[in-house]
Amino acid sequence: MNEDQDLPHPPEESRPAPVAGRTRCGLVAVVGAPNAGKSTLVNALAGSKVTIVSPKPQTTRFRIRAVVMHEGTQGRAQIILVDTPGIFQPRRRLDRAMVAAAWGGAQDADRTLLIVDARAGLTDAVRAIVERLAKAAKPIWLALNKVDLVEPPRLLPLAAELNQMLPIEETFMISAEKFRGLDRLLEKMAADMPPGPYLFPEDELSDLPNRMLVAEIVREQILRQTHEEVPHHATVETENWQERKDGSVRVDCTIYVGRATQKAILIGDGGAKVKAIGQSARRELEALLERRVHLFLNVKDRPGWDEERGRIRALGLEDLD
To answer: β-pairing, 75-83 with 168-173?
Structure first.
């Protein structure tokens, strides 16, 4: 996905005139199984990177609110997209906190948007989510994602089956990565938001503090640059944020992994791997923060970190045990 690519919009003269003086604002929880494309969709609708993306499942670990401004036929709307962790069968304390955050985001929202990977179809993970959503008896919107990777005859039966299982009000066929079908989804979201004042400043992109943004961007590079055995056994914490007189910032982060062997993989020969992770993260942070960033990474092995209450709270998750 091209993070800098603008969303496609029709020419100004072809858009219906908005209702003057009316504002709308609401929360849309984006839920689904791991790797359904939730974060890619949130970034695409926001028109900027607000949450990390990787091909690996369970990339998002906590709720991130992305602020999307849209002017449509019903007036100006602020749509607050709640990007939630993928919902899966939890095993660790960390897993349970992530799943609780996902369901909490769905409960608090004005609208729930279920994202289903059209290529994967009705998996066991999707069925489990659907069963729980059905018990809530709240109207749901459905978005079949990655439709560019599926033959069209397969889409309608999948949509029909999901509509039989849930009280779905709207169904959308989209490709978040290719920006297909997003204009209609965005317009419908804006029109569906309840009238009211904005909850965030119009120029704010998300509620993610800079310290957590740095940690997430570093973790994204870990996901992208290491093998399967490391990513979900790693967490990143911003230990120090120091403003400098020249307008730059020094940031010190600690990467925690579960085993000494994972630490060795992350550091690499002569520190090459952690250096590459730091360089890629620094370049992206400088583009996002629009300032120079001096990023320093430290790697520690901490067995059982994903069962520690302190580490879970540091991620912005609520420890339920």
So the answer is: unpaired
